[in-house]
Amino acid sequence: MYTTSYTRKKGKYYHVVFEYVKKKGTRKKSLSRTTKSEDKEVADSMLDDFVTECMRILNIDKKYKPKNRNEIIFNKDINLYNKEISFCDFIYGYIKMRRKTIEDDTYSGYESIARCSLIPYFYRENKKLKEIEDFDIEKYYYHELNYRNISPNTVLHYHYLLSLVFKYALRHKIISINPLDSVEKPKKKKYVAEVYNAEEINILLDLLKREEESIYFGVLMAAYFGLRRSEVIGLKWSSINFEENTITIMSTVKETNIDGKHILVCQDKTKSPAGLRSFSLPIEIKELLLKIKEKQEENKKYLGKCYYMEDKEYIYVDDGGKRLRPNYLTTRFGKFLKKFNLKHIRFHDLRHSCATILYDNNAGIKEIQTYLGHSSVKTTMEIYVHLINRNDKSVVDVLGKKLKI
């Protein structure tokens, strides 16, 4: 049995959520209810009663009552070098200690892993850091993979965070043995993206232009230039050189949760140095950008002081001047595909579609790497190995036609 509970904002109001897995290997199920409140504190106060009600309805033993994720707050004053420290406290303290030395989205990822997985599991174990053995970690991985049905790729992220935690503890002599050294990490499951071909992209863009203009620009940028969602939202007018007809990818906007707060992380840099790249600006996209700029100027005049000027440097804003959120783009995209019964792909798969179209039209792997802004050719080959294998098959077919066996 596995249970957990938390509150989350969905639309205008907060909801209380209870998740459970009754039997190993079965899918995670959840019950939720709107609080009809926009106040998180009100929602948090309603969570315990909702959990009690869910456990009664589902006839779940009280010993499985979950640790409320919302109670996990990374603000404790913890002495990391206390050899009697609990494992959960050490995880708390380690993540808090790294706060100023890592990127906001990395910190958010660590916090999420601890809040949603590590702490709820090991809180029940109630062990000290020095008492954790390899078998404890193996049981944890088994629990996540088989009871919670977490993907191996996600558990790999857990493994990476644990490796940082234990290496730090070993380096500072808080433990004498790293239990992770004898634990086999989960095998990565290769993800092959669903993609659109050029014809499907053209149909999609034509339909968006007529039916969902608000996300047309974002989809076009992702499909044509292979931009990540954060790069699309992060485009600034300073990225465009209308005289030289170039567009430079040099800033990003990401959406993340830090210390229980939902924030936007805006950076004048890309995911990696290789992500800083420039493209020639096709005349059609240049004309589209000029129309967007003209419309923004009209909206400024019409709304006057009501126009939101703090995001004026960004290209992708709404009619009131506010920069669009990354989640808005992906959510609207998914709903659009469903509404018009189009093949389902993720927004990020537009980037993969771009790479596939390039490869099918004789672009080399090195060229694709540069175009997409990957840090190395190895990264490109790992992601698009299926394209290379497909090409190998065509070569083998040529030999099959020429050689008699």
How would you write the strand order of the largest sheet?
1-2-3
CATH structural fold name of the largest domain? hpI Integrase, Chain A
- Counted beta strands: 8
**According to CATH, what is the class of the largest domain?**
Mainly Alpha
Q: Round the mean pLDDT to the nearest integer and report it.
A: 83
- State the end-to-end CA separation: 58 Å
- Identify the overall geometry: globular
Q: In percent, how helical is the residue content?
A: 40-55%
Strand content: 5-15%
Give the biggest sheet: 3 strands, antiparallel
Domain Tyr recombinase: 191-397
Keywords: DNA integration, DNA recombination, DNA-binding
Protein name: Site-specific integrase
GO biological process, one term: DNA recombination
Topology overview:
Blueprint (H helix, E strand, L loop, with lengths): L1 E9 L2 E9 L7 E6 L5 H19 L28 H11 L6 H22 L8 H14 L4 H20 L26 H14 L1 H13 L3 H5 L6 E2 L4 E4 L2 E7 L2 E7 L9 E4 L2 H21 L22 H14 L9 H12 L4 H8 L4 H7 L1 H18 L3
Antiparallel strand pairs: 1-2, 2-3, 4-5, 5-8, 6-7
Helix pairs in contact: 2-3, 6-7, 7-11, 12-13
Pfam families: Phage_int_SAM_3, Phage_integrase
GO molecular function: DNA binding
Protein name: Site-specific integrase
